[in-house]
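[audit] Reproducing an earlier prediction to check determinism. Same input, same settings, fresh worker. If the tokens differ from the archived copy the diff job will pick it up downstream; this log only records the rerun itself.
[audit] input (864 residues):
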Amino acid sequence: MSKQVTIVNHTHWDREWYFSDQDSLVLSSLLFTNTIKELEKHPQASFVLDGQISILSDYLQIIPEMEERVKQLVAKGQLQIGPWYTQPDALHIQGESLLRNGIVGSLLTRQLGQSMPIGYLPDTFGFNAQMPVILRQLGLNRFLFWRGIDPKKVSSFYFNWDSLGGGATVQAVSMPQGYGTGMLLAPTHEYVDGRLDKAINFIAETIPNTPDNILIPSGNDQMNIVANIEEKVQEINNIGKYSYKIGTYQDFFDSLDYKELPHYKGELIDPVFARVHRTCGSSRMDVKLAATKLEHTLIHEVEPVMVIGHRVGIDLNTGVLVSAWKKLLESQAHDSMAGSVVDSVNEDILHRLKQGQEIADGILNTIQKMLSIKLGLGDNQVLLINPLPKTSTQPVNVKLLTNYQHIQFDDVISQHLVHQRHIPARKNVLSQTPHGNEYLTEPGYYEDDFQIVVSLPALGYRVIEFHSTDENVDSLSESSDESVLKTTDWQISVRDGQIDLDWQGRHIKNAIKLVDDGNAGDTYDFSPVQNDHPVLIEWDSVSAKRQADWQEMILRADAKLPLNLDEREQGTNSGRLPIVMDLRVSPDNHLSIAIEVQNDILQHRLRLLVDSGLDADSNKASVPYGFITRKNEKIPTEWQSKYAEMPINIWPMDNNVSVARDDAQMSVFSREIKEYAQSGGQLEFTLLATSDQLGKPNLIYRPGRASGDTTNEGHIMIATPGAEILNQGLRYNVDIFWGAATDETTIATEQERLAFNPLAYQKQNLNLFFNRLDNKLQDSLTTKQSLPSSQSFGEVSEQLTVSAVYPAYYTEKATVMRLQNMTKRPLTYQLREGESAINALEEPIAYNDEIPPYDVLTILIQGV
């Protein structure tokens, strides 16, 4: 009887899965209404609405008359809502996306009342090691979860979770048997003896010295509120052997003495009590690539450009920015981002992401056009915008429409014409003039893609000019015979269809290669094919281009592969996989690779393998706001008796990963790739894994039942031909550095440079649909001002890297900037005039001029 059991009634609400978010909306109209009525009838009862406000916001849009009743229940503490907008994935998205999820969640929750003060993520497939930093930035010091815990590492189901740098700690509670532990609550011996007390015994007996207070969540997916819960729990107290009470998650946290509980530092990705789907990072790459593109556009382009726009009087409201974020956050929910959805839902996700990208592009288009009007730019001028609060001299991609075949930019460090296309003249084109309609011949023009290097002011803009020239100043010379890219540090050469690397006295054959193998898995997990033979992709052709310091090499392959699993078993190859790999040497001597895959193969996995030639047994990878060292762990022979799935050595890819030995290091950067593995000095990156089923039973890595409920009673197997991603071009960008071992600041600074790319815009009349809104953004929407041709709006020391800069979401006429300390030592930052330290919800925090290791400082800058 010493065990005190807190029973919390809740529902877990997948917005979409094998059903759509529209299906969920219809279901909520019944279930949420019933919940409200039940809570009103029973003032002692409470209910947790899954920790995400989006589902309640959707419900109130269709039944707005319920809003006041909801507010009353929230005020009384009976209805627990927030803090998130959606239940997010926590491994394959950026830390800034997790923060925006909490920011948007708080914006909406505040409209209805108080937010549940717990970072509640009951079903997310594992967690990055820096969740304590993210949660504390959202004003949360408590975390409740299910998947990913290893009791041998953590020593308790209830513990203090420390960030990697030790500057942030949250009180953590694991539900080792899941959020459905106490579902179907019933005051019967059958229920209490067979389910409830067994669960309590498991928690108490699995880890010695478990506190006497035990949490039992009572609910499940889309589950209705337990009716008359007070009476049922009272009867259970007469049946069971413990002391039971209804309560809230906050009540349970309050009952624990965290001073007596252990501390843990690290990620939560171990499949001990639940599957974490380590290989879901390569499933449904169409969604992952689209989501990553939108995420990058919002964080590293739209938000800082909006800050610049506000500084020059372009008052675009942040509401349109929130609308774009909602599209992304709804698509980053744990099932959606993982790819564990049916085809019709995947189509919904892609459509949402398309809408979000259109909003994001429209914001950029609007600010660039309005700023060009204010500056009075002519068609021989280009507006360059640097979204990073640091002076930049990195390459800028510029698209120009001009009547000139050859042009020269003024005052640039270098320029290269990457591609040119001629648009022919058009006859009988309508021109609407003050004296009537006229028909004329519209002359032809050139569409140019340039890459230029120019100095740009920090978080600002600069106008440059170009003029016609008779000389072909930047043509690239074709050199099909020379298959070499060379810098002072390394050399890449292509011979006999393979890419060799020479650096620091090492010669590594086939150092960069693509390997294809079969996939017998599903949309949750990759699974190897028995007796499969991976196929090394051989390059059929190579062409090189060079001019001054510009070097480019294009490799092409039309790989012959088994079309499907049957052909892999039979040893036949009727399938074709066209691949183009574009390799370029950047001005700072790293290798930039663009890989384009036109997928026409079924049930397969394609990986990029990069061999450093180093004798390395560990790697250092970025995680949100820090770095973590990982190494392969030995998989126990009898792993099936200890794990819910095989604990394979495949890890989530945040932004970069490095291997080093002595004074040599290889670092690989990519925002599109979501998972990687290591084999000695070789890093292995999964580009895609295609499948034909939502969930399959008895996989090699995951024996037993199928994930996705497809082998549950009353469920069926669900085919997902869309997860094969056929006839779609997939593009990945990878940057590789070879050289001397560098510190974390250097890696973080390079990551910052790769993230915050400068933007270019030309105000022209040759094609008013080149940017979608140019045709509708009239000059009369703003006025020309006496603005300088170059202007900066804030600069940050090189010692710190910038995570984000954006217009404040809660504070009028203010900017928020988040600085990150990506080192193992504290760094000093003294607030300047007009700056104050806040958290991500723009609430004041105490600050002593020092940013802890692997942590962040969020700054509010007033008056802009």
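[audit] rerun output stored. Observation attached for the diff report: The longest strand covers residues 506-518.
[audit] end
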